[in-house]
Amino acid sequence: MSGRVTREMEIGSGPSSRRHPQPSSHIHKVERPPQQNLLTEFQTVIKETFFHDEPLKAFRGQKGHTRFFLVLQAIFPILEWARSYNLEKFRGDLIAGLTIASLCVPQDIAYAKLANLDPQYGLYSSFVPPLIYAFMGSSRDIAIGPVAVVSLLIGTMAQNEIDPQKNALAYRRLVFTATFFAGVTQFALGFFRLGFLIDFLSHAAIVGFMAGAAITIGLQQLKGLLGITNFTKKTDIISVMHSVFGSVHHGAKKHPKLFWVSAIAPLTSVIVATFCVYITRADKEGVAIVKYIKKGINPSSAHEIYWTGDLLLKGFKIGVVVGLIALTEAIAIARTFAAVKDYNVDGNKEMVAMGTMNIVGSMTSCYVATGSFSRSAVNFMAGCNTAVANIVMSCVVLLTLELITPLFKYTPNAVLASIIIAAVFPLVDIPAAILLWKIDKFDFLACMGAFFGVVFKSVEIGLLIAVCGYILCQNPPTAVTDIDTSGIHSFEELHKTLQNRDVKLVLANPGAIVTEKLHASEFTKKIGEDMIFLTVADAIETLSPRIKELP
Question: What is the pTM of this model?
Fold first, then answer.
């Protein structure tokens, strides 16, 4: 059949009352498979779990120099797509890179404050990591740099160990140590093909965790917006609101659909606000400002990482947690845009690339970087074609570090706080929570557990609830008779990918509970209600006339 022919796919899982089988003159008999010994069965499980995509297939039968080049190409995907790179693609990447740079510079300065670091460390983290990712990553659309949730997470966990105000150097060293182990964790997951471990954070749990983190981050920005000096170091809502209302009587002061509009809005706000503070010298009237951003490119920080002692173990613990969260966010972003543009993202290569950039980043004064959804969305809409957009962004950040950081001296903290609030607001996905309630009440409970754990206790507790909620809500291993929102989400991604390839998705023999949830999520409308059958034979009999009619 030609490429335009519509092909069919069948997926089945258990009994259903969806349709009655049509009479058929053919009897399909399934023969008993040959019995396998324990060793063969174990080898099959290992292959299906870790090597289902046959990663070494491309190297078989190749000569020495060809095999060497293929190895380099596997490590550095840029060697593959660079051969077809041209001026037209560069034009799109240049525009996209400049656009996301205008967004990342003010965001980086703001996110560094979330991590309890000086502003330049946010800029450092948008210079080195994106360059490394551009050579090693497989996503064309993802934009790399610090993100709000990861900044909050590493800042919260690190300050529980060391006070950043009393001992800034020790705190910074702990952050670099955590970044190093975050990179090691990510690299190990990719190298040993253990990416399935990030599935312990389900879609439902992530929705709740991200929403809770967004609320927590937004509340913490009240310090900058209201000019509060004595603010709690805790992240729960009760402590934060106590700080806000406790400061009202102590001199707290209030300071006054085109994609590129929202993309340049943060930088425009920073420029205008900085200029206004400078000409009016409002900083002398109590307006809190950035004051100082160190000029120059990233200094080496390899000597600042804790290689021994108690803080090494603490850095390891923080790094593993932060690394997993950062990886989960990045992989989700990469897969989302890959599905839209119909290309494949190699999850293991992504993990190796993320791990490498954070390992190197930890030695060049960066803290954990990952894929940013807001920047990636802008990057996508601005017309990026390849990871060169990340290189363009890095070059702009380099120029910023070398030439214009002193100009941010009078930037008011209130503007940075508003930039963070604007960035995290979309993380509160109310429609997704409503959909969880409609589809699966257990998933909704896991979502709410993660949300309230973050908001009322801490980010770590919310994360723990998210993982535990996922495990407790899983189906027994006895038969697959149910589906959760993560499974439906996977179906939606598969449907998009197949649509782009002119392939129809057909479901055969879904269970009653599965069918009910597919209807509740309106997934059946997306694939067509006539594309669900009781049996595979029923699907083939019904669809065969359509296949025969195709040219």
Answer: 0.76
